[in-house]
Structures are given as C-alpha cells and as structure tokens.
Design goal:
The protein has helices spanning 15-27, 42-52, 65-72, 88-96, 113-121, 131-148, 157-166, 200-204, 213-221, 223-236, 274-282, 313-324, 328-344, 352-362, 372-393; strands at residues 5-10, 31-38, 56-59, 83-86, 102-105, 125-128, 152-154, 175-182, 243-247, 253-259, 264-268, 305-306. Strands 4-3-2-1-5-6-7 form a seven-stranded parallel β-sheet, sandwiched between helices. A five-stranded mixed β-sheet has the order 11-10-8-9-12, with helices on one face. It has three domains: 5-154, 3-Layer(aba) Sandwich (Rossmann fold), CATH 3.40.50.720; 159-324, no CATH class; 326-394, Orthogonal Bundle (Rna Polymerase Sigma Factor, Chain: A), CATH 1.10.1740. It starts with a strand and ends with a helix. It has 394 residues and is α/β, with parallel strands linked by helices. Strand 1, helix 1 (15-27) and strand 2 (31-38) form a beta-alpha-beta unit. The chain binds NADP nicotinamide-adenine-dinucleotide phosphate (NAP). Residues 11, 13-17, 38-41, 60, 106-108, 111, 129-132, 156, 209, 211-212, 215, 273 line the site of NADP nicotinamide-adenine-dinucleotide phosphate. NADP nicotinamide-adenine-dinucleotide phosphate binds at residues 11, 13-17, 38-41, 60, 106-108, 111, 129-132, 156, 209, 211-212, 215, 273.
C-alpha cells in the first residue's frame, strides 16, 4: 500500500465507529481519518477530534444553541483546525468530495441510507456496516455501485466472512449455498412461551457481541438475521433459496460458503468487529490486526443447528422479503425500527415486534420496482402504520 487513503467514518461515536477508529489507530500512515460524524454525542466526538485530528467533523442531530456554538469553535493548541459542520446535507457533500476515498458507513438505521447511497454514487469504496441501506434499497444501491465503480465491502461479520470465503471460488456460478451463522442472541435458550416477558435489560445482554441497542434487540428477535438474509441476497446476487441460517452459539465461524462440488469454506476468528472492519479497509491486503486470535493450544467445541423459523417469526419475514423485494424491504425495515423503539420505550413486548412487522408488511401496497422517493414514502407509511397499530391497541 503506497498511497494514503482518506477515510470517512460516518457514525464514529457508535459501536462500529469506535471500533473503526481503533483499527485506524493501528493501521499507520497509509490511512488517514479525513472526517467523522455523530448524531448527538458531541462530547465524545470532541475527544475523537482531539485524538485523530480529522479535517472535518459533523453532527447531524437537532440544531440548537450549543450546536451553533460547537460549529464555531476550534481546538486550542491543536495545529490543524477541524472544520465542524452540522446536518446530513453537509455530511453527504463531504462523502461525495475529493477529501474522501473510503467511507465507513456505521450510522444506525435508515438514517444511514442517504450517505451510503451518496458514497456508492460517488464511486467510493464503501465499507458497509449499515445493513439497513441494502435492506431498504438493495437494488438501487447495487446499481449505483455498478454504474459508478464503487466497491461495496461488507463490514457485517457474516457478510465479510462470505466475501472472504468467495475469494476461494471463481464467482457466483461456483456457489451452491451460503450459510449465515447466528449467535441466537441473548435469549436463545429461553423457552418460547417465556420470550414475551423479556425485559429491555435481558434483551440487551448479548452473550458474544457488544453492539448498539437497536442491533442487539434485532439479535434477540432474530430480525438481525432476517435483515442479513436480505443484505446477502443483494450483496452476492443470490436467490433466497441459496441462503441457509444456522445457530452457532460460539460465534467463531462467522459464515460459510458451500461450493457446487460440496466443499464448504468458512471464516473463523474470535468475535471482534475490528477484523471485518480492517479487511474492508485494506482489501485485498491482509495485515496484522488488533483483534484477538484463536488460541490453538486450547480445546474448543463448535456447534450449530438449523435456525427454527417457528421460534423466530422474524426470520421467516426476512426470507419472504428477500424473495419479493420491491418495496418490502423498506416496509419491513421501517416497521422494525419503529417497533424496536416502542419496545425500548416499554410500550410493547419483545415478541410483538415481529407481529407488528408481519401486519404492516401484509397490508402495504407492494410495488416491484420502486424509485428512491417511493421507498422513502414507504418508510414513512410503515412508521405511521406502527403508530396506528399501537394507538388501536391502547
Ligand atoms: N455493532 C456491531 O457490532 C454491528 C455489527 C454488524 C453491523 N452493524 C451495523 O452497523 C450500524 C451501526 O451499528 P452500531 O451498533 O455501531 O450502532 P450504535 O452504537 O447505536 O451507533 C450508531 C451511530 O449512528 C449515529 N446516529 C444515530 N442516529 C443517527 C441519525 N438519525 N443520523 C445520523 N447518525 C445517527 C450515532 O450517533 P450518536 O452516538 O451521536 O447518537 C452513532 O454514531 C447498524 O446498521 C448495525 O446494524 C453493527
């Protein structure tokens, strides 16, 4: 790697964003943090500015007096002044500018869609953690990347694993199946009839991964795996029938590819997001990483079993949406984001998330080839339907 690569980390204050900064602090002089963004955690963003001296920093949350004052400040004693800007429009312009070579898309939810699409349209390398972008608008994202020479490199550990395994084949025609592994989430050993009583704390105590709140709840309902099925369909251009999901509690095998000849190749490593993040930054090069390695002097058991779609109704939705595509991804994502918010605000039970998503999905006006604006309208409609559902319930 000879030339310096300028990296933008969108959502640098989140779980993936912080891990990405840690990776960059180890990568050395060939990578430079060009810009970072938060939504509301300005104080944390400031500490990141002090450590990484990016040329740009963005806050996208609601504007108030403190944000206005923040935009005007400089860091005393720091030789390179960071330009601070507010709003998604400013962030999107930055993503498209010559200041950036690689975009780490680590904003959570549909809020990350505009900037992910902007990166694809501007032909940047897109290290994509924000799976919701592909779930909502997979067809448009992949087309934008193809048309503009943007490489979309997955950060999701499962998709990074598949991407790595695929380096052993000669392309899509060699694939028989991909096998996505799922930890099963924090409630994987609970009896089904107890799941409805899960508290927020119980749903958030993930056994193997430390992640943001939304994805941790998605993991407890298996909606995360549903979104990943849809993500995999778009990323690797697969039929949903070519995607299997197994529960693998150790989270060591991050996913596998079964090739046509019956060979199965998997990617293994201890659960740590810094490895897939680094691979998306350095691909095709492999260089030492800060993530832990498997200790081969210790015994280890690796188990898996098929994911039970009866136990996890959200997973069924994922396969259905992957098959039907069109507006379905936008509706499922909107309903899920709204329902997860309701759960985190103690308005519904955990098990009602999938029930609500099913209802909203079944009642939407399906369109097979929506535009971006159609998808945005569907997103709004899906959220309002969830509100209608909860109002009717009260
Ligand atoms: N965490 C993981 O291990 C993991 C693994 C695979 C994939 N992913 C995916 O990576 C993405 C990020 O997940 P995470 O766990 O890192 O989430 P997180 O910890 O909740 O962080 C979310 C980031 O997005 C910012 N943000 C929140 N709302 C925003 C909005 N409306 N507009 C702009 N920025 C906003 C947050 O800023 P503030 O901090 O200022 O609120 C924060 O920087 C998700 O799509 C998730 O599915 C995560």
């Amino acid at each position: 790697m000879s030339q310096i690569r300028n990296v933008a980390i969108l959502g640098s204050t989140g779980s993936i964003g912080r891990a990405a900064l840690d990776v960059l602090s180890h990568l050395g002089e060939h990578f430079h943090v060009a810009g970072i963004s938060c939504h509301q955690q300005i104080e944390l963003l400031e500490t990141q500015i002090e450590s990484f001296l990016p040329r740009f920093a963005f806050a996208t949350g609601p504007i108030d007096d403190s944000i206005a004052a923040w935009q005007n400040q400089s860091v005393s004693g720091v030789p390179q002044r960071t330009i601070r800007q507010h709003g998604m429009d400013a962030l999107v312009s930055f993503v498209q500018s010559d200041e950036v070579d690689i975009v780490v898309a680590a904003i959570v939810g549909i809020a990350g869609l505009e900037s992910s699409l902007a990166a694809a349209n501007a032909g940047k390398r897109l290290a994509l953690a924000n799976k919701e972008s592909l779930v909502v608008s997979g067809s448009l994202m992949m087309e934008a990347a193809r048309a503009n020479g943007s490489e979309i490199l997955p950060v999701d550990s499962e998709h990074s694993a598949i991407f790595q395994c695929l380096q052993a084949g000669r392309g899509k025609s060699d694939i028989h199946k991909i096998i996505l592994t799922a930890s099963g989430g924090p409630l994987r050993d609970w009896p089904v009839d107890k799941l409805s009583s899960a508290t927020i704390e119980e749903a958030l105590s993930h056994p193997t991964w430390q992640m943001g709140r939304k994805i941790t709840v998605d993991s407890a309902t298996m909606m995360n795996k549903a979104l990943e099925v849809i993500e995999a369909k778009w990323l690797f251009d697969l039929d949903p029938e070519q995607i299997a999901v197994v529960v693998h509690p150790q989270s060591i095998i991050h996913s596998m590819v079964e090739f046509k000849d019956g060979s199965v190749i998997g990617q293994l490593s201890p659960p740590d997001m810094r490895l897939p993040i680094q691979y998306a930054l350095t691909f095709p090069n492999r260089i030492p990483s800060p993530s832990p390695k498997i200790d081969w002097s210790q015994s280890m058991h690796l188990d898996w079993k098929p994911a039970d779609q009866e136990r996890y109704p959200a997973l069924q939705l994922g396969f259905e949406v992957a098959k039907k595509a069109g507006t379905c991804g936008a509706v499922l994502n909107a309903a899920n984001e709204a329902a997860v918010d309701l759960f985190l605000n103690k308005k519904i039970k955990l098990t009602e998330i999938a029930t609500i998503c099913r209802q909203v999905l079944d009642h939407h006006h399906y369109s097979p080839a929506p535009s971006l604006s159609d998808l945005q309208k569907m997103d709004q409609w899906g959220r309002s339907e969830v509100q209608r559902w909860i109002n009717a319930k009260c």
